[in-house]
Amino acid sequence: MSSGCPPQSPAVAKSEVAVEGECPLLAATFAYWDNILGPRVRHIWTPKGEQLMFLSDGEVTFLANHTLNGEILRSAECGAVDVKFFVLAEKGVIIVSLIFDGELKGDKNTCALSIILPQTELAFYLPLHTICVERLKHVIRKGRIWMQKGYNIISVLSLEIIPIMELLASMKSHHIKDTVLNDDDIGDSCHEDFLHKAVSSHLQTCGCSIVVGSNPEKVNKIVRTLCLFLTPAERKCSRLCKADSSFKYDTGLFVQGLLKDSTGSFVLPFRQVLYSPYPTTHIDVDINTVKQMPPCHEHTYNQRRYMRSELSALWKTDSEDDIPPETVIHTDETFTPDLNIFQDVMHKDTLVKSFIDEVFMLKPGLSLRSTYLAQFLLLLHRKALTLLKYIEDETQKGKKPFRSLRNLKTDLDLTVEGDLHIVMAFAEKLRAGLHSFVFSKPFYTSMQERDVLMTF
């Protein structure tokens, strides 16, 4: 080889992932900027099996390199992760790339973790974009620590890349396309009190629910019912259960159906449930029970503390195999996770009760029920906007602390605790951090919060 030729590129390591069903993901890549060779691909993950569109390793490498071009002068805060979205019409693909700084072989490098999909899957992927990005961001936090300690980052990244492939494959075949308000979806056969409690808790937890049971038809019936109270985009982030094999719990979905095993039990992974962006309602259709997680501000508080504990425990490891991915972290002596994170639904409401009583007075099979439902959701949306405006005025747009919860409840006709929590959950999705702003000074646990609300 002449001295003027660049050194040969080492072969790129590749992992083929066995995924059940059709996976819309073409590939995932981890690349970094080499000061001598420029953009370099360290690893490629591809789903195993036949695909409608196939990319060669060379094409995948070209696309991965494309995401790092121009990043050599990247200026970002320490620890920042930049999310970039590329649509390459000439290649017929979309690339979602997370750019971050990390250490490889003792040198600071600009790195990119990317997923590649066909352009035809754009409409399918967009509702799931936030879910995928948030999950990849957290695995990057863990990966940074692994890189700093000189461990193999690929093993850490695989812990999230593979589940995301499985998630996209399951959503491709079992996501909620649409639903209408009729007897099959919000069936009159449901026990009225159970249906009322399930819908009320579902709305109080920002539309996030897990439905478990032994009968897939019964589980999916409740899943479709709860999806009636979501937006079309949120329905596309919801999933039916599968009859022949149960899906695993996936962080970030709004409503998901899960089947119990042959012994009639189902164990939820504590870590994934706690990392969900919103608190979650747990519904068991076999025994007609409804339980819910604490409200948003407490959920976020526990989530952040657990995340810090997890990263701290990861930093203290002496080898790559010290902490399995599902180990519950107890390293922070001031924070012991409460594994029993689901509690009974304590807040009664009148909004959902009146809706359920009245909606079944209308004849099924017509558009009247759907129209009535749309009006009910519009009412909740307007109440949430009014609540936000009320708090803005009372606090001079956040310049002063909020001190008049009693007046708010009276002025907005939200004296019933369940009604207040439903409207605040709607407002939380419109203005993230509302619960924390209202309740965080001082921080109230859910039990203390109930005591405070009862005094007004």
Automatic annotation (TrEMBL):
GO terms for molecular function: guanyl-nucleotide exchange factor activity. InterPro entries: C9orf72. GO terms for biological process: autophagy; endocytosis. GO terms for cellular component: autophagosome; endosome. Pfam families: C9orf72-like. PROSITE patterns: DENN_C9ORF72. This is CI072 protein. It comes from Pogonophryne albipinna.
